């Protein structure tokens, strides 16, 4: 059974820092947090391949924003961590099917707006001109990849049908969300759906109660027809018209117990 890139990166981050994430930040930022945020930043800022057989290009400049005390304590212990992480980005991009146009560079930044339990990662391309973007085109699917979603929707608690059309969909208790759910046991901003290559991927947004898909706790999961999502006391069933109910149930990123 293959191990996903997040699991591998989490292990290597802990190994490179001799367990500093666990030892220093037991109640704050974890190695898995950084791994997940890195993958999100890589996916969100990847540019289109030059040819049908080419690979998307991952960004090569990463800024990791942490609470000032967390950033200072970490750099005091491991001043070369940005360099170590830059090397791991090469590995992560290759494992995730991307290429790099330049040697990656990582900068650790203190951010007063973040709590000790938060982290934020921004990414960009050093070779792109300011304002230039390259949208990701559809890619040829293999038998291992889900087909593009056709008429996707969520069924909320077996009664409410919500069609999905936007590329980014926020779900939670707050009225500003795209899908508002009146469930006191879910977070104000609980999860987000992002459309990638025509299919939706679910991301838990650091919710208090967590997110489960097909009875597995997840941080991120590529949705397929028939997936059952549990948040708080609410059940969401994802459906599209691509065929029979998904029986694979493989999640992209599993939360550790």
How would you summarize what this structure contains?
By secondary structure, the protein is an alpha+beta fold.
Compute the average pLDDT: 77
Q: What fraction of residues sit in β-strands?
A: 25-35%
- Supply the helix-strand structural class: alpha+beta
Rounded to an integer in angstroms, the radius of gyration calculated over CA atoms is: 19 Å
Order of helices and strands: HHHEEHHEEEEEEEEEEEEEE
- Please report the number of helical segments: 5
Question: Major beta sheet, specifics?
Answer: 11 strands, mixed
What is the overall silhouette? globular
Total strand segments = 16
End-to-end separation in angstroms reads 19 Å
Classify the helix fraction into a percent range.
Answer: 10-25%
Question: Which residues sit in consecutive blocks of at least 5 with pLDDT less than 50?
Answer: 129-145, 244-257
Commentary on this structure:
The protein is of the alpha+beta class. Helices cover 22% and strands 28% of the residues. It has helices at 5-16, 20-24, 31-44, 68-77, 81-95; strands at 57-58, 61-66, 99-100, 105-110, 119-124, 153-156, 160-163, 168-172, 179-180, 191-196, 199-204, 211-213, 216-222, 228-231, 234-239, 253-254. Strands 6, 7, 8, 9, 10, 11, 12, 13, 14, 15 and 16 form an eleven-stranded mixed sheet that branches. A three-stranded mixed sheet has the order 4-2-5. A two-stranded parallel ribbon has the order 1-3. Helix 1 (5-16) packs across helix 3 (31-44) and helix 1 (5-16) packs antiparallel against helix 5 (81-95). It is globular and about 55 Å long. The protein starts with a helix and ends with a strand. The model is unreliable at 129-145 and 244-257 (pLDDT under 50).
